Amino acid sequence: MKDAVIVGGGLAGLSAAWRLRHWDTMILEAGHRVGGRIRSEKRGQYFLNWGGHVYAGAGSSTDELFRETGTSVIKVPGSLSGISMNGKLLLKGRIETYPFRIPMSMSARMALLRAGAKVGRDVLRYARQTGIRHGEPAEARQQRIYEFENDRSFSDYIGDLPEDAEALFRPTITRSAADPHELSAGAGIGYFSLVWNIGQGLDRSIVGGPSVLTETIAASMDDRVQLGASVVEVVHKQDSVVVRYTQDGEEREVEARTVVMATPATVTHRVAVDLDPEVRDALGQIVYGPYVSAAFLTNETAPQAWDGAYGIATPKRSFNVALNMGNIVRGSETCRQPGGSMMTFSPGSLARRLLDRTDEEIIDIYSKDLDTALPGFGDIIEEAHVQRWQTGAPYSFPGRGKLQPTLTRQGDRVFLAGDYLGTLYTESAVQTGFTAASRAAGVLTNERQTRHATLSA
């Protein structure tokens, strides 16, 4: 019998596995690789990236994981507030000046100023009400975050806006993989707080690409990682849990004292058939939005206008943001090296327009939009690849906060982990993975002590 089985080899599962590495564990991953929505590939000094790209800094669970695994990180280099809209490329300056610098009608400009002022005030209110409090458990803070303005959508909160004004809000709001009418008002305000880095932001990049972290953890697990292992059922016994799965066309099962379910809520709801019914029902209410991303390797030999920008919002395009992955190199080089790397990101309704298209069609659409947003980009593309994420990112919808107490209810032997349990993306995945591992270790330690006491009696 195993001490622990971790179902899911994404960031949450690998974080739990890392903390349980000194126990007899097994990691079951349905895919052909570990990492889940963390995926990057090295290309010389650059890397292509399709998934999570920024990570939490000092004082976070992610920072603990970096230090424990020896993963090198740097602060995200370059501006996070670039924008390309209506023929204007802005890579420097304060966000609040955009209404005066981007071409648009006077009515759109005035509406944008009014809406921006409202969001700005509420970002400060959000920071006050959801900030870190000394001695408070992470779960308590997360509950406060979910409950902030959780009774209406962002569209209801912001009201009707002219096209250009609404378009400027979308790149920040839709990073959740939800459109404004789907996302809660508080979550939308929270994304602006995150982007403006008020409070605990995501501002670290992994040297060499995000998969360096996930592959490092997997390597430390040696042969305990089972790929192509699709779990079909997780059921309790009196003092253990049975995990049934298929691998290489065969039906298999493994028994363990504890299980960490680090799969998307939709999968956990489907396979963990005898969870507490209220918890299972809550899992069934979690909603994910899709996204499509693409990675571009470039072959330029000279500096580019966007070298100083990391994030460039692209309203009214097929993707809502272009992320300059090459800036990880730019931030440490003494002279400008040839080449670069860019990532495009299309969430929510933008993704739905692309999901059924071929890779070639998507690359063609992206390349044309990149060339328009960043003049000359189309001439320097050397390599491009698409990634579709049908179950992209969980988002906070109106009423989401009511589910949190149920979802975080502690089980006896099956423990939940995943970014759907929080609002900080990669940080939520790591933090909940750590929490699940701690709870599993508590059960294992207690049973080991009980066995030793029985043998000694």
CATH class of the domain at 2-37 and 61-68 and 209-287 and 397-456: Alpha Beta
The amount of helix comes to 25-40%
Tally of separate helices:
16
User: Largest sheet, described in full?
Assistant: 7 strands, mixed
Number of strands: 19
Shape, per Cα inertia axes: globular
Give the CA-CA distance, first to last residue: 24 Å
Strand content: 15-25%
CATH fold title of the domain at 2-37 and 61-68 and 209-287 and 397-456? FAD/NAD(P)-binding domain
Structural class: alpha/beta
Using the 3D structure, state the CATH architecture of the domain at 2-37 and 61-68 and 209-287 and 397-456.
Answer: 3-Layer(bba) Sandwich
Give the uncertain stretches in residue-range form. Answer: none
- Mean pLDDT across all residues, rounded? 94
The radius of gyration over CA amounts to 23 Å
Write the layout of secondary structure elements.
Layout lengths: L1 E6 L3 H9 L5 E5 L10 E4 L2 E4 L5 E2 L4 H9 L3 E3 L6 E4 L2 E3 L7 H4 L4 H25 L7 H10 L6 H5 L4 H11 L11 H11 L6 E5 L4 H11 L3 E3 L2 E7 L4 E7 L2 E12 L3 H7 L5 H9 L2 E11 L12 E3 L7 E3 L3 H4 L9 E8 H5 L6 H15 L7 E14 L9 H4 L6 E3 L9 H31 L1
Parallel strand pairs: 1-2, 1-13, 2-10, 7-15, 13-19
Antiparallel strand pairs: 3-4, 5-9, 6-9, 7-8, 11-12, 12-13, 14-17, 14-18, 15-16, 16-17
Question: Would you mind describing this structure in some detail?
Answer:
This protein is of the alpha/beta class and 457 residues long. Among the domains are: 2-37 and 61-68 and 209-287 and 397-456, FAD/NAD(P)-binding domain; 95-196, no CATH class. The chain is 37% helix and 23% strand. The protein has 16 helices and 19 strands. It has helices at 11-19, 61-69, 98-101, 106-130, 138-147, 154-158, 163-173, 185-195, 211-221, 265-271, 277-285, 327-330, 348-352, 359-373, 404-407, 426-456, and strands spanning 2-7, 25-29, 40-43, 46-49, 55-56, 73-75, 82-85, 88-90, 202-206, 225-227, 230-236, 241-247, 250-261, 288-298, 311-313, 321-323, 340-347, 381-394, 414-416. Strands 1, 2, 10, 11, 12, 13 and 19 form a 7-stranded mixed beta sheet that branches. Helix 4 (106-130) packs across helix 8 (185-195) and helix 10 runs antiparallel to helix 11. The protein is globular and about 80 Å long. The two termini are 24 Å apart.
